Amino acid sequence: MNTFVAELQRRKVYRVAAAYIIAAGFIIQVSSAVFPAWELPNWTFRLVVVFLLIGFPISLILAWAYDVTPQGIRATPPPGAHRRRNLITLIAIGVVVSAVAGFFILPHALARKIDKSIAVMPFENLSEDKENAHFADGIQDDILTNLAKIGDMKVISRLSVMAYRDAPHNAREIGKALGVSTILEGSVRRNGNRVRVTVQLIDAANDEHIWANNYDRDLNDVFAIQTDLAQKIAAELQAKLSPSEKAQIERKPTQNGEAYLAFIQAHNLFVTGMEDIEKLKQSEQLYARAIELDPKFALALARYSQLESWIGHTFDPAREHREKARALAEQALQLQPDLPEAHLAMGFSQYYGDNDFEAALKEFQTAQRGLPNEAEVYLALGAIQRRLGKWPESTASLEKAASLNPKDGWVLQNLALNYQMLRDFDAANKTIDRGLKVNPNGLGLWEIKCKLAIAEKGDLGVSEKAFQTVKSMPMNNVDKLRLASGRTDLFLLERKYKEGLREAESLPDDLLAPIPAALSGKYYLIGFARRALQDETGARAAFLKARDLLEAQLKQSPDAPEMHIQLAKVLAYVGEKDAALAEAQHATELLPESKDAFGGPEIAEGVAEVYCIVGENGRAIELLDGLLSRPSNITVPGLKVNPIWDPLRKEPRFQVLIDKYGAKV
Fold first, then answer.
1. SS3 for 209-268, per residue?
2. Which residues contact 355 (CB under 8 A, 6 or more apart)?
3. Looking at 17-21, 29-33, 177-181, 257-261, which range is the least confident one?
4. Could you say which DSSP state residue 149 is in?
5. What is the DSSP letter of 621?
6. Phi, psi values for residue 323, rounded to 5°
7. What is the pTM of this model?
C-alpha cells in the first residue's frame, strides 16, 4: 500500500485530482447559472455533469500514465512490480469517487428547478352562438380561481391576461411580460348542454407544448373539467396540493347549469365594469337570477355581496346596499363556512359598510389562506392595512397584488396612492408610469399623475397635457363626467373661474343623478366659482342647492363621513358657522385619523377647509401642521397653489408653516 501511495505522489496524481475537482466544481457552478439564462434545455446541464463525473477516473488514468515535463508530455517511467494491480486500484478509486459525487450531485441536476408559475390565457369561443363568449370566459375564470387556491404556485390574475385577447402573441413574450414559466391556452365549444374544452400547456421558455387534452362533457360536468385541469397543472409544475386545497378544488359551486350561466355573466360584468354603474346594475340582476335558480349557491351569494359593498362604497352609500351586502355574506358563510370568497365578501362588508377595519383584516387574512394566489385578496389586505396605519405591510401587500396582476392599472393606482400619502413621489411616479405603460387609456392613472405633479411641485402643466391626451380616448358617460369634473377642478386651481363655472354648469344633472356625491359636488363647484367671481347671489343659490342634495342623501346614509364634511363646507359658505362646525366635528367622530390612517387625513383636511372658510385661521393652520407631519395628501406645493387656502396667506403662522415644511420638499 505504501508503494501505491508513493507512486501516486511520484506521478503527481494527487495534484491532478485536486485540480480536476476544483475545475469541475467551477464548471458546474457556472453552468447552473448560465445555462438557464441562455434558455438552454435542462438536459444540457445534466449532460455536462455526467461528462465531468466520467472524466474524473479518466483524468486519474492519464495522470498515472503521463507526466508534464520541460520537454513536453512524456510517458511516466514504469513503476516496476505491481503496475497492473496499482492501475486497477486507481481506476476503482476514481470510479468510486465519481459514483459518490454523482449520488449527491445528480439528483439536484436531474431534478430541474420548476418555476411554479402560470398564466391562463383567454379561452377562444368556438361556439356558433357568439353569445357564448361569456361562457368561455367563465371557464377560464374558474380554472384561474381553482389554481389560485394552490399556495405552492404563482397564478396571474385574469385582468392581466385579458390584455392578450384577440391579439397576436407568443408564449415567450407572454412569459417575460407576466413573469411566468408556463402558459395555458384553450378553446370552448358549447352546443346546447354539451361542452367541448380543448387545452394545451406550453413552456414559456421555449414555446414547446408540454401536454394537451380534450374534454367532452355535459354542461353540469364542466366543473370536473376545471378540477382535473387544476390537478394536472399542479402535478406538472410539481406544486404541492394540501388536503384542504384539494377539497376546495373538487367542490362543485352549484349543480344547476342555468344558475352557473347566470353567475358567470354576472361575474364578467362585475370584474370588467367596476367603474360603470350600468354594468354593475346588470350584474346585480344576474346574480339575483343565479341565486333564485339555486338558493344554496354560496359562491354567487358571496360575489353578489361583494358587488353590493362596492356599489355602496363607490357610487351610492345608501344603507340598503350595506345591509344587503351583510345579509348575502352571512348566507354564504352559513352555507359554506370555509369558502374563501365568502370571507372576502364579509371582509368587504365590514370594511365598506361598517368601517370595522380590524374585523375586516381578519376576514381578508382568512380569505388569503384559502386564495393564496388571488391578487384581489392582496389588494384588499393592502387597503385595510394602510387604514390601520400599517404602511410597510400595506405596500408589501399591494406589491404582491401587482406581481399577480401586472397588467391591471387599478392595482398600480392603489400602490401609487400609498407612495403619495408617504410623500415618496419618486416611487409614486414610477408606479403610475408602470400603470400607464400597460394601460395608456387609464383615466384614473392619468388623474393620479396630475395630482402627483401638483402635490410634489405645484405643477398644473401636467394636467393640461393629460387633458389633451385623454380627450380623444373612447369613454362612457361616467368617464366623460369624471373628465369634465376634473377639468372644472383644474380651472379653479388655475383661478380660471369663468371657465370652471362654464365647465361645471355643462354637467347634466340627469347623468350625475346615479352618483349622488357627484351631483352635490357639481353645485358646490358652481358656488365656489361664482363666489370667486364675486357673484354672491348666484353662489348662495348654488350652495343652498348642494345643501339640500346633501341633506337628502344623509337621510339615506347618515353615517357617511365624506357627506358630512362636504355639508360642513357648504354650510360654512352660506354663513351657518355653528352648524358647519358641528357637521365637521361629526365627520371627525365618524372617521378619526386614529381609526383610519388613510381616509381620516382627508376628513381632517376638510375640517381645516371649514375652519378656513369661517375665519378660524389659527385652528386651520394647526390642523395643516399636523397633516404635514404625518402621512397625508397635504403638501407645501399643494397648499401654495390651491385657492381654498387664500384666506391664510397673510397669516404669519401660515408662512412659518410653509417655511418649516418647504425645506423638506
1. EEEEEEEEEEHHHHHHHHHHHHHHHHHHCCCCCCHHHHHHHHCCCCCCHHHHHHHHHHHH
2. 590, 591, 595, 596
3. 29-33
4. T
5. H
6. -65, -40
7. 0.77
